[in-house]
């Protein structure tokens, strides 16, 4: 099992930026990919971005060109740089780690005001 601790959420204005971090611990040597999902009130959870241990990235259509995922393997940490934020980016953001199973963080709230 992999334990995930997110940080960096909060309040931002539209057009602003936030940076999320997710530190992994536990069976991290089995982790193949890490990433972020989000869930807004009344909506389904959706993919934000993922990154493999080799650095390959994948983004959800709604964040392409605005969000950047990166990974520091030495620190077992994944980052999500969120720029040009929109009110519709408001959601709880969850960190994930994929190994033999998918583990989830507890989530961090991101609120974007117009």
Helix share bin: under 10%
DSSP strand count: 11
The number of distinct helices, counting runs of at least 4 residues, comes to 0
What is the mean pLDDT?
Answer: 95
Q: Structural class of the helices, strands and pairings?
A: mainly beta
Radius of gyration: 13 Å
String of helices and strands: EEEEEEEEEEE
Q: What is the multimeric organization of the chains shown?
A: single chain
What does the overall shape look like?
A: globular
> Could you name the ranges where pLDDT drops below 50 across 5 or more consecutive residues?
none
Percentage beta strand: over 45%
Gap between N and C termini: 39 Å
Tell me about the largest β-sheet: 7 strands, mixed
Structure, explained:
With 114 residues, the protein is an all-beta fold. The protein contains no helices and eleven strands. Strands 2, 4, 5, 6, 9, 10 and 11 form a seven-stranded mixed sheet that branches. A hairpin with a 3-residue loop joins β9 and β10. The radius of gyration is 13 Å and the shape is globular.
């Amino acid at each position: 099992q992999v334990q995930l601790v997110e940080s960096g959420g909060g309040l931002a204005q539209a057009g602003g930026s936030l940076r999320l971090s997710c530190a992994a611990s536990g069976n991290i040597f089995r982790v193949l990919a890490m990433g972020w999902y989000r869930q807004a009130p009344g909506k389904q959870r959706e993919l934000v971005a993922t990154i493999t241990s080799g650095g390959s990235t994948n983004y959800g259509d709604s964040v392409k060109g605005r969000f950047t995922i990166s990974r520091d393997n030495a620190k077992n940490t994944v980052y999500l740089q969120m720029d040009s934020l929109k009110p519709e980016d408001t959601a709880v953001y969850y960190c994930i780690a994929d190994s033999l199973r998918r583990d989830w963080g507890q989530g961090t709230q991101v609120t974007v005001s117009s």
